[in-house]
TrEMBL record:
Residues 2-166, 190-365 form the EngA-type G domain. This is GTPase Der. Pfam families: KH_dom-like, MMR_HSR1. GTPase that plays an essential role in the late steps of ribosome biogenesis. It comes from the Bacteria.
């Protein structure tokens, strides 16, 4: 699919334009400059014309070793790979020296450039629109990303560069609400999110997996702000990797931008299939790690825990045992969560991590026939019968699976509202162990038949 990169200096409205084109609030937007850091990609459609759009960080003239300098490297890579670039300027502020520097750099690349004079609503941007002619890229387009003005003009400008390639693409999509077969699930991209505390090595792990410095990394904590999705393949199997912002304790999150990043990470967890919780091997297991894991399980996502920086851990066997004990105490609702030691810097353990992710998704998507479930229920009751509160028996009659991802079951019986929590845990743990669901979250609901005389 043809790609369109959005470039410009900080705070000219690039992320607002990105959200307008993809039709969703994917990129974080704020009045302060420098919100976007890593480049973000999304599927856009403009008046029926599909293309791939890339949001980039604000172009700044800084030392390449600094964080703004590393951001600029990602922006340069995005523009070099795209088919056409949208050079966004702030029409209300006019052309600045940095705009002129960006224009010189773009001319040297030889890419097709379309100048978008943003914030042209009303009459406040007329002078800046006229100034944009001096950049030397032809007629600038008056536009308002905030209000959606100028979309027809943008469509006409992009059409010669985009439409020919876009028509060759198959834009048909499946109904995501329909439950897929086991074979379809195995062939579909694995939605794999990497979460954890700041500076645990999430972006470094993504870069190691894909073999390219796609994500900005460095010693500074909290570099990643947006959740960035990257399409990739492992041993011929498609994977959609999602890097996320680090999650600190709630009491420490006071900055508005960090709160938006946290909300973005939580949305990513909600839509992931498998979530890798990355621990920092130099710091061990902390309460915040357990809170993140609990959030993942509450949302019904599959969980894998990876201990990063394993090459820096002293006394590994004792350290690993301490982690296991902490997980058993802190995640009592799910036992046996896969625990894998890795080094994002060297690549140690990444293949076992991906193998575990695919196996976990398979269990998370598994459906068991009603007959097999009820044969299991008969054995489970024979092994451990439900209690009889007040001398009246609780009868469990029938079990069926109503959905997958996560596996969800309904158990019909009489007086099931009086079942103790301990017996519910017994049933769920037995389901996991006897029917090979592993450590994936299981939801079990209870229903009593309606009394016709009530």
């Amino acid at each position: 699919m043809p790609s369109v990169a959005i470039i410009g200096r900080p705070n000219v409205g690039k992320s607002t334009l990105f959200n307008r084109l993809v039709g969703k609030r994917l990129a974080l937007v704020d009045d302060r400059p420098g919100v976007t850091r890593d480049r973000r990609e999304g599927d856009a459609e403009l008046i029926g014309m599909p293309f791939r759009v890339i949001d980039t960080a604000g172009f700044e003239d800084e030392d390449p070793a600094s964080l703004p300098g590393r951001m600029r490297v990602q922006t340069e890579a995005a523009v070099k790979e795209c088919d056409v670039a949208l050079f966004v300027i702030d029409a209300r502020q006019g052309i600045t020296p940095l705009d002129e520097e960006i224009a010189r750099w773009l001319r040297a690349l030889g890419k097709p450039i379309i100048v978008l004079a943003n914030k042209c609503e009303g009459k406040g941007g007329e002078s800046g629109l006229l100034e944009a002619y001096s950049l030397g890229f032809g007629e600038p387009l008056p536009f308002s990303a905030e209000h959606g003005e100028g979309l027809v003009g943008l469509f006409q400008a992009l059409r010669p560069f985009v439409e020919g390639d876009a028509l060759e693409e198959d834009t048909s999509s499946e109904d995501e609400d329909e439950e897929k077969s086991e074979e379809e699930i195995d062939l579909s991209p694995l939605q794999l999110a990497i979460v954890g505390r700041p500076n645990a090595g999430k972006s470094t792990l993504i870069n190691r997996l894909i073999g390219v410095d796609r994500m900005i990394t460095g010693p500074e904590a909290g570099i990643t702000r947006d959740s960035i999705a990257i399409d990739w393949s492992w041993q011929g199997r498609p994977v959609r990797l999602i890097d996320t912002a680090g999650l600190r304790k709630k009491a420490r999150v006071v900055d508005k931008m960090e709160r938006l990043s946290v909300m973005d990470t939580f949305r990513t967890i909600d839509y992931a299939e498998v979530v890798v919780l990355l621990l920092d091997g130099t710091q061990g297991l902390e309460g915040q790690d357990l809170r993140i894991a609990d959030r993942v399980l509450e949302e019904g996502r599959s969980l894998i825990i990876a201990i990063n920086k394993w090459d820096m851990v002293e006394n590994p066997s004792a350290f690993l045992q301490a982690i296991r004990e902490g997980l058993n105490d802190g995640l009592a609702q799910v036992k046996g969560v896969p625990l894998i030691t890795i080094s994002a810097l060297t690549g140690r353990g990444v293949d076992p991590l991906l193998k575990a992710a695919f196996e976990t998704r398979k269990a998370w998507s598994r459906r068991v026939s009603t007959g097999q479930l009820n044969r299991w229920l008969t054995r489970a009751i024979a092994h451990h019968a439900p209690p009889a509160p007040g001398g009246k028996r609780i009868k469990l009659r029938y079990l069926t699976q109503i959905k997958t991802r996560p596996p969800t079951f309904v158990l019909f019986g009489t007086r099931v509202d009086q079942l103790p929590t301990s017996y519910e845990r017994y049933l769920i743990n037995s389901l996991r162990s006897d029917l090979d669901f592993g450590s994936v979250p299981i939801r079990l609901h209870f229903r009593s038949p309606e009394n016709p005389f009530d």
